[in-house]
Amino acid sequence: MTKFLGTGVALVTPFNEDRSIDFDGLERLVNFVIDGGVEYLVALGTTAESATLSTKEKKQVVDKVLEVNNQRVPVVLGIGSNNTATVIEAMKETDFSGIDAILSVSPYYNKPTQEGIYQHFKQIAKVAPRPIIIYNVPGRTASNIEPETVFRLAHDFKNIIGIKEAKGDMVQSMRLLKDKPEDFLIISGDDMITLPMVLAGGAGVISVIGQGLPEEFTSMVRLGLKGEQRAAYELHYKLMDSIDMIFEEGNPAGIKSVLKKRGICEDTVRLPLVEASAGLKKRLSDFVDNLEVSLV
Predict the structure, then answer these.
(1) Residue 296 pLDDT > 60, yes or no?
(2) Is the pTM of this model over 0.85?
């Protein structure tokens, strides 16, 4: 699945000051990241604040992303729940025209066993109309998908094509990379360890900072995929502080502050999330102003 090599970005949902969806801002964002070189888009992921979007709003967001994208790059759609039946029903009710793959988070809050996780994705794989990328993010789900469970799913279901691995654990990432089936995608879900994962054999990243600094971050990932370690790490070290900062007070408050600085959209978020503090906004603004990189 070469279309998912490189940098995908987990798009935010821009909001107006009254917290309604800012569709003009969403249009600017999609064009900004595509012009910046990203390889694919991810709609309705965690960063999109999808937990606070209504069913109607989710459809509106996806329709707008597809319209603006106009088939320029692949699009991955986030569909997940801690209720397996809900995921299956959502897949049956969704129009997948223009969608290239599904990103589905491991069940959260319930804390299923490894067998429960396997059975969850087994049932989804049976009905999914597009290839599935599993999303492992223990910091949000309270349960980890062990590498053995990933391999079991990868071997048993050909339409499960990869995993967005966001545990932030290089040891687990290396175990996945070492024993993964051929052509199975190990995609970083953690911006900070994207480069070492890529250099170890990873397929790239589904990024947050990549939508705020698309040219710089995509350049770093491409250099890593080509094995140009020295140049890639030079970029990595210049971007590191911004990655720390955008997650300092929660996601997507930090990245929305960057996007406001860059004239893409407001930094409004929906409760229970709140905007970044004035101090963090100032530090992010200074970072963007002072960032100097040489892109190849």
Answers:
(1) no
(2) yes
Each residue's pLDDT tens digit, 97-127: 999 999 999 999 999 999 999 999 999 999 9
**Residue 162: domain span:** 2-226
In a domain, 263, yes or no: no
Average per-residue pLDDT for the chain: 97
Nearest to 207 by CA among 193, 195, 190, 219: 190
Q: Which of 58, 64, 118, 164 is catalytic?
A: 164
**Tally of domains in the chain:** 1
pLDDT at 293: 77
In 3-state terms, what secondary structure has residue 14?
coil
User: Does the residue 83 lie in any domain?
Assistant: yes
Half-sphere exposure (Cβ direction) of 51: Cα atoms closer than 13 Å: 14
Q: Which of 40, 58, 135, 167 is catalytic?
A: 135
User: Is 164 assigned a catalytic role?
Assistant: yes
User: Residue 184 is part of a domain; what is its CATH number?
Assistant: 3.20.20.70
4 vs 40, 63, 114, 187, CA distance in Å? 7, 21, 26, 9
In 3D space, the residue among 65, 93, 60 whose CA is nearest the CA of residue 79 turns out to be 93
271 in a structural domain: no
Answer yes or no: 118 catalytic.
no
Q: Would you say residue 184 lies in a domain?
A: yes
| CA dist., res. 295 & res. 126, Å (int) | 44
What's the pLDDT tens digit per position in 20-56? 999 999 999 999 999 999 999 999 999 999 999 999 9
